[in-house]
Each structure stands twice: as C-alpha cells, then as structure tokens.
Amino acid sequence: MHQIQSLPRVSHLLISLSLLLFSLFTLTVSKQCNLYDKNILLELKTQLGNPSTLVQHWNPNTDCCTDWQGSFIRGDGEGHVTMLVLGVDDDVSGPIPSIIGQLYFLQALELWNKNISGSIPHAICNLTRLEFLAIQSTSMSRPIPNCLGRLTNLVQLEIILNHLIMGPIPDSLGNLTKVVSFQLYRNNLLWDSTRTYPWFILPIIDSPVQSRRVSACSNRKTPAARLAWEPVHWADSQIGRTGQYKLYGFIEQQVQWGTLVIGWPKQDVGISKFEQEYVQVELPMGLRRLDINHNMIHGSLPKQWGQLPLYNIDVCGPIPTGRRLKRFDPPLFSHNKCLCGLPLPPCNLSESTMEHNHFNMTPHHLRISLSVLLFSLIFTLTISKQCNPYDENTLLELKTHLGNPATLVQYWTPTTDCCRNWASGINCDYLGHVTSLTLGLVDDVSGPIPPIIGELLFHRDLEFWKTNISGPIPYALCNLTRLEQLSIRETSMSGPIPHCLGRLTNLTELDIALNDRITGPIPDTLAHLTNLHVLQPPANKLSGQIPYSLHQMRSLQWFNVESNQISGSIPASLPLIPNLTVIIMDNNKLSGLIPDTFGSFQNPITLDLHGNRLSGPLPNAYLMDFSSNGLVRDPSFLFGRNKTFALTINLSNNRFEFDLSKVEFPAGLRDLNISHNMIYGSLPKQLGQLPLRSIDVSYNQLCGPIPTGRRLKRFSPMYFSNNKCLCGLPLPPCNLCLLFLSTFFTPSLSAELCNPDDKRTLLAIKQSFGNPYLLASWTNDADCCTDWYQVECDSTTHRITSLTIFSGQLSGEIPAAVGDLPYLQTLVLRKLSNLTGQIPDAIAKLKNLKMVRLSWTNLSGPVPSFFSQLKNLDYLDLSFNQLSGSIPPSLSELPNLQTLHLDRNQLTGSIPESFGSFMRSDFYIYLSHNRLSGPIPSTLGRVGFTLIDFSRNQLTGDASFLFGKNKGLQQLDLSRNLLEFNMTNLEFDSSLISIDVNHNKIYGSIPASLAGLPQLQFLNVSYNRLCGPIPTGGQLNRFDQYSYFHNRCLCGTPLPPCNTFSISFVYVIAAAMAIPSRASLLTFSLLLLTSLTLSHSAVVCNPNDKKVLLQIRNHFNSVGFFGSWDPKTDCCNWNDIVCNDADHPGRVTTFSVGYSNDVVGQIPPIIGDLPYLTYLELTYLPNLTGSIPQTITKLTRLQVLDLTSNHLSGPIPEFLSQMKSLQQVHLSSNSFSGPIPASLSLLPHLIQLDLSKNKLTGSIPESFGSFKAGLDLQVFENLLSGSIPRSLGQANLTNLDVTANRFTGDASFLFARDKALVTIALRLNKFKFDFTNVDLPQFLAVLDIAHNHIYGSLPKRLGQLPLSYIDVSYNHLCGPIPTGRRLKRLVPDRFAHNKCLCGLPLPPCKK
Can you tell me whether residue 74 is helix, strand or coil? Predict the structure, then answer.
C-alpha cells in the first residue's frame, strides 16, 4: 500500500499516462504543423534556455505535430497545436515565458516539473480555448492569477503540490461554470477570513449563480465559510491548519446530490489535520454523501444529520436517530473518540472521557485518471481502443484477490490488451475504460468478490453468472454509479441485498436470481432506482415484505420475486407504476386480499401469484396464474369474449365456485386450467372452437357432454376426469338417463359423508408431513368429502378416490399410510421440491389406482417393479425426480397403461424388450433426459405409439422401424442420441405433427414424402450425416436452415443451392453408406455405375492412402472404434471412409469420424498425406484435443472441413486461407481462442463458416466485406466485442448469427431489401441503432434482435415478410406492431420488454 506522500505522484502519473495513451491512439488524418505555432514553440524553447531534450527533438526541419518528442504535443486537423505537456519527460526549468500565451488553439496544458519556477504567467489567461489546465509538483510561487477566471471553457483545473503558490483563492474562479474537477490541494494557499468569499463551485451544481456570499469571521457561532463540494479537495491546504479559524458553516440554498470531502483519505493522518467543532454545523438538506474521515474534528454530531437523505457517511456523543443513519455499516462511524448508538453499540455516558485513539484506515477514495473522462469531452476524434492502465491494474489485482483462477491467468496477462484480448466479457469504451465484465460464465472464478471491484468506476454492465463465487454481495459495488445492468445469477453468494444499491440510479436492469443463499428483505432504497426497467430477484431466500415504496420506480416494467419466502400482503401501490406489465410473485408466503387497486392497471398485465395464501378479487391480465391459493367465490368476470388479451388463465387448486355454463371465453385463449375447484354447470359449446394448446377442467363438479371440436378430442381424458358427470370424447359416451339422475337427484350433504377410516388415514398423512399449511383445511371437525382440499370422494360410497397435493411447502418422505386408502384411484404429489426418499412399497396395496403422478420432486431410488401389480393403472408419471437404476420390464404387464413418464431422471441400462407388448393403440411414452444406452428394441415397432420421446440419452443403432404408414404416430423425438440408420426410404404416418432427430448419425437423404405431411409443424434433422437436395413443397417450406444445417451435404432451400456434380457425388456417398459393412464390392460398384458422373465397375484402395489410414488408426490406438479398418481388407470398404474420385479410382475422398469417446489425442499431422481428400469430418469427439496441424494445408482439394464439437484449442490458424478449394469450414463448439483471422476472406469459394461456441475475441475482420459467394456466417456464443465493420454490409451473406457476444454500436447497415439474407440473429449483444427505417431483406425468414439497445419503431414491411421466426423483445422499441397475419399469431413474449410497443399480439395502442 502506498504511503500518503506517494499518492499524488501516482495519481498524476496516471493522468499523464492517460494523456500519453490519448495521444498515441487518437485516429487522426495526416497533418502538418501550423507554421505560426511551430515558430512560437521554437521561440519558447529558446526562452526556456534551450533545454537539451527540446534541442534534441524540437527540430525546425521536422513536423511538430508528428515528430517532436520530449514533451507531449498534439495538433488538430489543421496543424494547430492543441495539447502541450512540459516537464514530464524533459529537463525544462526556470520560469515559463509569456510567449506561451500565443498558442491560441491550445486546449490542454500541463506543467509538471519541480524545476519550473517563477509565477503562473498571466499570459496563460489568453488561452481561452483551454479545457484542461494542470500545474503540479512545480516550484512556482506567488498567488493564483485572478485572470484565470477568463478561461470559461475549463473543464478540469488542477493546481496541486506546488508548495510555494500562496495567497487567497481568486474570486474570479466563480466564473468557471463548466469545471467538473477542481483540485487545489497541497499548496500554500491562505484562508482569508476577513473578506466575503465567493463559492465558485456552487455554479457548477446549481446555475444560474445566486447570491452565495457569507461573511467569514473567527466567532465559532457565526458561519465561517461555505462548505466545499466534490470534486473540490480542500485537504492539506492552509485551511484550518493553525486552528485560528474553524471551518464550519451552512449552505443558504439546498443543493441536491452534493458530496462533502474534507481530509485526504489515506493512512497518514499527521498532515494538515482539520480541527472542527461540529455541534453547530448545518448541512444542506440535499446532501447525499459525507466524508470527513481522518481529521481532528471534535464535538458531537448535529441532530439535523438524522433527517438528511445520506447514502454514505464516514465521520463524542450519541449518533442522531434517523432511519437513514441506522442502516449504514458500523465501520463508517468507527475509530472515533466516543460515538455510540445505532449502528454502533448503545451509549454509555462514562465512555465520553476516553482518550482518542488513532488508527490507519484502508483508503476508499483514490481518485483516478479523471483526465481520460475529460478528454472524451475535449476531443471528439475516434480513437483506437486500448486498455486504461488503471483499470488494467485493478483487474490484475482483482485476479490476484480471486486466487488467480486458471482461466484468468491464461487470458488476463499484463502483456496483452484487456480491451481486446482478455476473456470474461470485458468491454471498453473508446477511451479504454472497462465498461463491462462477466465473471463465471466461461471461467473458473470462485470465492468472495474483493472490494477492489468498486474501483472500476466506468462500469456499465456487471455480471456474476453460473459460478462458485461466494461471500456477501460486496458493498463496493455501490461505488459503480455508472452501472446500467447488474446481474448476480446462479452463484453461491450469501447474505442480504445491500441497501446501498439504491445509489446506482443509472441501473435499468437488476437481476439477482437463483442464488439460494441470498437472504433478507428487499431493500426499500431500491425505490430510488427510477430508471430501472427490470427488477428480478427470483429463486433466492428473500424474506420480509414487498416494500410499498416500489411505486416510485416509474420506469419499472418487469417485477419478478418468485420462489422466495416473502410474506405479508401485496402492496396496493403497484398499479401506480405506469409501465408495469409483468408481475411474478408465485411460490412465496404472501397472504391476505389481492388489493382492489389491481383492477386499475393501466396496461394488461402478466400476473402470476400461484403458490401463496391469497384471497379476494382478480384483475384483468393476459397471463393470469392464481393457482394453489385459497381464493374463493366467483371469478367468472375474468372471462369474456371481448377480453382478447387473456391468453392463459390458471385458476387451479383454489376454492372457486361458480356456474361455467354461460361463461364466454376470450377468443384468443390458448391455455385454460380450472382444475381442483368446485366449479359446476356444463362446458360452454364455444370451448370447442378455441385455439387451445392445453386444457384442464378435472376435479370439479361439471356435468354434461364435452363440446365437439377437433382440438378437444386430442386431449387426454385425464384433463376432463373426476367431475360429476362429464361425458363424450375423449371420455366415454354420454348416457342421458344417468345425466338426468346426476343433475336432479344429488344426495343430501347435511350429515358427514367422510368415511372415518379414510379420515383417520388422511390425518396421519398430514401429521407425517409435519402438519403443513398446505393441508390446513384437513381438520378433525370438518367433513373430508365436502370441506377438505386436495381430496375427492366417490359420490356413492364416499370413500376417498383422489389425493392431489400440488405445489406448496411440504417436506419429508411419502408416508406408508398412503397405502391405507383402498379406494384411491388418483394419487398426485407434484412440484414438491422437498419431498424426498424412495417411493414406498405401501402404494402396491392401492389396487384401484388409475393415475399416479409423482413428479417434480426429489424422490430417489429405483423405479419400483410393484407398479406392474396395479392393473388398473392407465397413467404413470415419475418425471423430474432423481430416480436411478434400470427400467423394470414388468411395466409392460400393465394392460391399461396409456401414458408413461420416466423422463428427467438418472435411469441407466436399455429400454426393455418387453415394451413391445404394450396393448394400447394410443400410447404416450417419455424416456428423455436419462442415461439410457444400447439399441432401441425392434419390438417397439409393433406398438401404436401416439408420442415417443427418447431424446437426450445414449441410444444407438437403428430406429427406422418406429416410422411407417398407418401407425398413428404424431410426435417423435429421438434427438441427441447416437442412432445410426438410413433415412432415404422411410415412410411416414399422415398424422405426424413433429419430428426431431437432431444430433445423431442418421445418413441417406430426406424422403420427398415428408413434403406431403399435411399436419407437420416441426422438423429438425440437423447435426446428422444426411445428403442430397432438400425436398420442397407442403409444410417443408416453413422450416428454416436450423432444421437442416450441420449435415454432410444437404443442399437446396433454405440451405445453399445444389450443383450437378455435388448431387451425383452426394447420392453415391449416401448409397454407399446405406450398404452394410458385409455387402459385396459388386453392389457398391453397381451403385457407382448409376451415378451421373462416376462410372467405374470396381474400386481398389490406393496403398499409400491405406498406409496413412492405418497410421491414423495406430495414432488414436482405438481398436474398438476402428474395428473395420483391417489391413487385409479394402480401405474403401472401411467404415467412415469413401473413395469416389472418378479420375483417380481408389483414392480416399471422404474421411468421416465422429461420435465417440474412444478417439483420444490430437489430430495426427499425417492426415495431410491424403491428397485427394475433399471431405474431412472429425466431430463430437470430446477427447480430441490440441490444435489444427499445419500439414492440413497439403489437402489442396479439401472442400469441407468439419471439426465440430471437439475439445480443440489454440488460435484459428491463418494457414487455412491457403486451402483455396474450401467451401465449408465448421469449427464450432471447441475452445478456440484469439481473433478471427482476416485472411479467411481470401477463400474464394467459402459459403459456410461456423466459428460459434468458442472463446474467440476481437471483432469480425474488416476484410469479411469481400465475401461475394453467399456466405453463411455463424459466430454466436463467443467473446467477440466492438462494432461490426461497416464493410460487412457489402458482403453477400445468406445467414448471419452473432448471438451472445459483446458487439456494440450500429448494425443497421446489415439490412437492405436486395440482400439475400434469410437469417439475421443479433440477439444478446449491445447493439444500439434506430430500427425505424431499416429496409428488411425480401426473403428474410428469421429475425432475432432480442436483448439489445435497439430503438425506434418496427418497419411496416415487417408484416409482409415470410417470417418463420421473430424476436424483438428486450429492446427500446416503440410504436404499433405492423399488421400482418404472421405477426398476429406470434406469442406476446417475442415483442415484450420494449419501451412502448403496442398492437396485436400485445395490448392495443393508446389513442
């Protein structure tokens, strides 16, 4: 730690270094020194006595603007000298000649050398363009010239560390109304108490200048002088040094947001300590920050201080009472003589006589490099970004405090530029100040965040995300007053949210989410964040009440506090926030009434309050989730045909009771859940006409036929079950006689109906769970059939038939007593995260069970085999648990089973062969997100599945038997496995809605019959080995490139077009891959004969190529994976190898290896000895490491280089530009780092370049504007930053995806009507431009600009484009959404979180 004597030298060295950086990196045009200024400088040199440094460098024959050294000189565009620094690196001495006043264009002047003497020349006052004047560490003497008041353009004035400058501070300095930084410390200035004193700093804060003069005298009870406001430093001058004059006083007018700094905040307190009696001192009522530490101030704190809106205070007697003072940390009051009272220990009168103790405190006030900020005001030239040295040192010290994590050690090196080369999402402004930092997303940062992070004063965006960062949220963050976005997400941080975050008034987004150790209340000081748009601290452990004062946040749009422990009532003031559109407060402990004011929101709102203890009326919203509360009575007013913005309504698990028969539903309603209430009547006929995606009306008292409609028939019967007498598809047909009896002859409910055995069992279950509030209605004096929630009784026997506990605070294991409900048909325990243990054997006793749903819990252990004994079971859901082991084959013995959910567990082994014997013809099976392996049993091809989801496992082999005509299959998801089969001749059921087979090894071509599927809504065959033209027509025309990309050689719309040679080439490869490894060479030869361009009857592997391949096999030492590579067989028949060069038979043209953990090591250099290779694929090999070998440049015929999803690292090599035949380069999902080589633009045939999901830094090269062949450019999820070069607007791009980088600035030039762009994805960057007049490409299908700072309105043409996907959310867009059929049917989320977008699918615009 520096001592106080060295601090000013360090501070001003930083300033000089900033000047040097500015001069070195300002981009200016070539200029020539103005002759007049040059002569003045030469005369100045002469009058200074020709110092040797200036004699050496100030040469009359060279250009003073570009060639003179020894002092800093900078010229403007016309060669006028605008900057001059004398004394830093030269031997200037003596007085400064008055001729300096003839450099009339000078804007910055610094004199810094102890050998500079004499007085401050009055000639400086002629330099009226001066904006920066610094006179420091000189031997100048005499007073400050009064004429400095003429320099009205000054922004920064520093006259410091000049021990011979004396006299009073001139009155005229009050004219300097533009000054931002005013420093006069460590001179020999005198305080004149006999005269009226002008307080020049006040006009800076509160203009125009009022009468601000106060008489100064020595009487303590008379105001002595005005207090100095930051950024002025009075420390270490003559003020108060002798003790003759006491510095205290008051401010006549209120000054808002002032800061008082008295005393230099360093450890050495022996220099110029102030003495002050503070009993009499009055402070301005607007004061927010007070720092008077390390002085000799005595007396007690004035009572007035308790009423000030102070955010920070560092100052014998009790601390004044006041809500604001109590919330400050005790260290801010520490090391005083006898301060006491909150937040310190309570007062003890005997302590007032204790001796004063002196301590050294850690500095918290180092003022750094203000000149960099100043120059952004002085110079408007664009400069080349280079890391500010202070910020760089701060980051390096931060790295040290964090324990030097490996990732930061690798990238954060002093020899590289932190703005360009360092990882962790570092961005800088054009002066090199660090403005954004992301810790944890792609690095290994852990431990607490040190306070030094508070010294990155120019920060605007700070993220701690997905990391082991621990400790409290540092109070030092509150120093970052420029912050606009603060995100603390998925960390191990703990403790409360600091109150001082309320100081960060520039914040627009505060995201403190998914940190399960963040506790305490939501600070009421957050109400000061009047610019905040997003406040979301969900999924923490916050408690207390929601502050009523949040209504002061007039800009708030999104408020999310879900999944905390917040209690109390909902503030009635929330509707006063004019722009609030989203309120999410589910899964807390809120209670009481929903405020009446909630009916007065100015906009339709998304409101989610489920999982609380609320009651009362409900407001209008377009997503309403009030599920799992205790709400009662009639909410039918929520419905209505004219309420077009109610898209989702969830009233489940309440106590609502009303007649549904005459209810009219909103025409746009998509999701309806009214289950588990006491709703009666019949289902309205209109229900069959709505575009519903989901419906659940189960567990009510509804009766009558289910309305006819194609959509309703598709839903599972369980969503209509457990009602009084609902009937009709998908339930059994209606019986009119039974309907009549059920409607008019209901049993009397005067006597208790509940069976005493069942009641006793239920009370035992409640006790086993610890009598949770969720089961509060389960009381001994209430009828369990009529008054209890979560249970249902049979209308005849009155035995318990349903136990449904959903979404609440319930913990423990499932009690064995649940098996003592012998008539139970439905058992649901869902979304109970604290439900643990294994599934109890007692459930096997429940022979009447039809539905078991134990999902979204923390149950563990195996899937019990006893379920096979429950022969009535038709629905089994054990999803989203921690179940392990294998799947019991005995589940296939359930004759009525229709739906099986075992997804999202940790199951291993294979899918049982016996699953081919399921009896139902409309079976739904979900096994996704497990660890299942091995082949899919072919017996499953016999089952009439409606839905199959085997995604995200490790399944291998064939799955083609799952396809076929007349099977009834509607949805199939086999994605992210290791399946390998030929797709060419597959047949499909006409009812297919969704096919997802991405990330497998599927080969062949896409069948043309896919185009004839009338209901196909989703298709994804990406990341396979498919080849050939993509079929056109029908529903296939709606899918974008993401449905097809990353295949071997698919072509045609929406991918690049096919050509004759490639089609012929493709079919030969596809056919060859379809041949089993044991097929004869003759069969392969016949296929070659049918090729359009190849006509050889037999191919024999070239011995040189065979030798190379065997060396590659030995290099990887994986006998299992390369089992077919037998030296005794023809290498052209080996797996993963193709030989199809017509002019050079037997030469290897395709090398395709992938999807294996057994391929370990680096890419062997010998691979460059396959000279006829046109296709090289090494993909999904997680143990393939190292860099790309340079020998690959010998593959001069290579057209496709695919190294996707490995663990390759190092820079992307420049030598790739030598491979002129390359058409496709796929390097995504590796660990490549460094910049993108500009030389890649030299590849004349390149049409696909995928560099996504790496750690690339820098920006997109300027040279990429030269691509003219139609480039598909993917660079998403890297660490790229800066602005996109404007030259890219001249490139011929078909697709551009720069998602999830740190790009800034303008990107509007990428758009134009005549461009061939099909996809533009700018998501998750910091682009800022006006979207109003952007001319969108005519064939644009995908537009994703979400999460940027884009403003203006949406272009009208947007509604006319053939868009298949659009997302413009989280920007600053405004105005009406253009009309267009496609836009109206999109979900509102795609347009949400903008400034003032309106119109369908959002709420209508206000007139």
Answer: strand
Q: Classify 447 as helix, strand or coil.
A: strand
Q: Choose among 51, 166, 58: nearest CA to 113.
A: 51
Q: In the structure encoding, which two tokens stand for residue 1127, read together?
A: 């030296």
DSSP structure string for 374-400: HHHHH--S-B-----HHHHHHHHHHHH
As a residue count, the chain comes to: 1407
Asked if 476 and 499 touch (Cβ cutoff 8 Å), the reply is: no
Tokens of 1091: 């090729």
State the pairing for strand pair 492-496/518-520: parallel
DSSP-derived secondary structure for 639-669: --TT-TT--EEE--SSEE--B-TT----TT-
Whether the full predicted model's pTM is greater than 0.70, yes or no, is no
Q: What per-residue confidence (pLDDT) applies to 1079?
A: 38
The two tokens of residue 1349 are: 């700072």
Encoded amino acid at 355, one letter? E
**For every residue of 931-973, which 3-state class applies, written as one string?**
CCEEECCHHHHHCCEEEEECCCCEEEECCHHHCCCCCCCCEEE
Q: Give tens-digit pLDDT for 1283-1335.
A: 999 999 999 898 899 999 999 999 999 998 888 888 899 999 999 999 999 98
pLDDT of the residue at 91: 76
For residues 967 and 922, is the Cβ–Cβ distance under 8 A?
no
Record the tokens describing residue 924, joined without a space.
């739904």
What digits encode the pLDDT tens for the residues 1367-1395?
898 999 999 988 875 665 566 778 888 98
Rounded CA gap, 773 and 783, in Å?
A: 18
Beta carbons of 1122 and 1113 less than 8 angstroms apart: yes
Supply the pLDDT for residue 410. 78
CA–CA distance, 1135 with 1176 (Å, rounded to integer): 14
Residue 1182 makes CB contacts below 8 A (sequence gap 6+) with 1157, 1205, 1206, 1207
Question: Using CA atoms, how far apart are residues 770 and 1137, in angstroms rounded to an integer?
Answer: 65
Split at pLDDT 50, 70, 90, the class of 1139 is confident
Give the C-alpha distances (Å, rounded to integers) separating 1254 from 5, 604, 1060, 1236, 1267.
47, 41, 35, 11, 22
The pLDDT tens digits for 1169-1207 are 999 998 898 988 888 999 999 999 999 999 989 999 899
Give the ranges where 114-222 is alpha helix by DSSP (H).
202-205
Mean pLDDT of the chain: 77
- Measured CA to CA, the distance from residue 1173 to residue 188 in angstroms comes to 81
Question: What does the alpha-carbon distance between residue 638 and residue 654 come to, in Å, rounded to a whole number?
Answer: 15
pLDDT, residue 596, reads 64
Q: Give the alpha-carbon dihedral of 1231, 1232, 1236, 1239, to 10 degrees.
A: -150
Across-strand partners of 290? 260, 313
Nearest partner of 794 among 757, 760, 823, judged by Cα = 823
Q: How confident is the model at residue 1230 (pLDDT cuts 50, 70, 90)?
A: very high
Helix, strand, coil percentages in the chain from 3-state DSSP, rounded to 5: 20, 20, 55
User: 286: burial class by Cβ within 10 Å (0-12, 13-18, 19+)?
Assistant: middle
pLDDT tens sequence across 716-739: 888 888 888 899 888 888 875 444
